[in-house]
Amino acid sequence: MSSRVPAVTPTPTPYLSAHRWPTPAPHPPLHYWLTRPFRPPAQVWASPYYPYGSNGDGRYLVHHGADFPNPEGTPILAGAEATVVFAGPDTREVLGPWAHFYGRAVVLRLTRQYQGRPVYVLYGHVRRTFVRKGDRVHQGQVIAEVGQEGIAMGPHLHLEVRLGENDYNATVNPEFWLTYMPGHGTLIGRLVTPDGRAWMGARILLYRVQKGQPRYWTTVPTYLEAPGIQPDPLWGENWLLTDVPEGEYVLEVAGVSPPLRRRVHVHAGETLFVEFVVPR
Ligand SMILES: [Zn+2]
């Protein structure tokens, strides 16, 4: 951890949101509008160790984005047609919790709007930028290259989606905006109480069923309560697993007795919503 980062929140045991969690809309729309920020052989999926709304098991600040580790200098591609609203060092204009948090960044305002609200995409910790404020960019255009500026530990891209305004406290889960990888689907859901509070900092476990045997696949924490961490306004989720290979799975809420499990089939190119209700 960089010495410039003062505050680290320890991993909490699961706790309840202070208020009722937003309820999903009846038929919320999908918005996989952004192509991946990299092209293979660069890593095109986000690191599972520090997902949106988590603190990386107590090691870091609550994460407002998703991280893509790649070597310094790897070209970063615009996810959609957009206008550049920021490009350069964030020393004077504060983009994060304090100045020089992202070191150097590009912020795009997409041409498309979501529910009548502007959508901003931030590419942070970049080494060089290749666009200027006011530029129009097209999907796939090289806009910057990977660096480790600001508070980054090691070279990676920090990707953020901001809804409604270009503000650190207006983020949503960026992985929910990235186009599917071929052969993969998305699991999204809520872990709530019967009266609609969210369980925060809990763990959802995913087992892949192969030859009838469930084997541990991955885990994802539910979002932590922090300013600027919020669900999609129409989906009301508090956890998300993207890039899940098509197949049979068992989802399980960690630490609940008797066990709370759900068998699901993930189809390529589909999004499956799963709600778990756990009393206080
Ligand atoms: Zn990050």
Walk me through the structure:
The structure is a single chain. By secondary structure, the chain is an all-beta fold. 0% of the residues lie in helices and 40% in strands. The strands form 5 sheets. Strands 2, 4, 5, 6, 8, 10 and 11 form a 7-stranded antiparallel β-sheet that branches. The radius of gyration is 18 Å and the shape is globular. Zinc ion is lined by residues 63, 65, 67, 158.
Task: Give the structure's gist in a few sentences.
With 280 residues, the protein is an all-beta fold.
Number of domains: 2
% residues in beta strands? 35-45%
On the 0-100 scale, what is the average pLDDT?
Answer: 94
**How many H/I helical runs?**
0
Flag low-confidence runs. Answer: 1-11
Class by SSE composition: mainly beta
* Number of DSSP E strands: 19
CATH superfamily of the largest domain: Glucose Permease (Domain IIA)
Indicate the CATH class of the largest domain: Mainly Beta
What would you say the CATH architecture of the largest domain is? Distorted Sandwich
Instruction: Please summarize the sheet with the most strands.
Output: 7 strands, antiparallel
Q: What small ligands are held by the chains?
A: zinc ion
Our Rg estimate from Cα atoms comes to: 18 Å
User: H/E element string?
Assistant: EEEEEEEEEEEEEEEEEEE
Q: Could you say which overall geometry the principal axes of the C-alpha atoms support?
A: globular
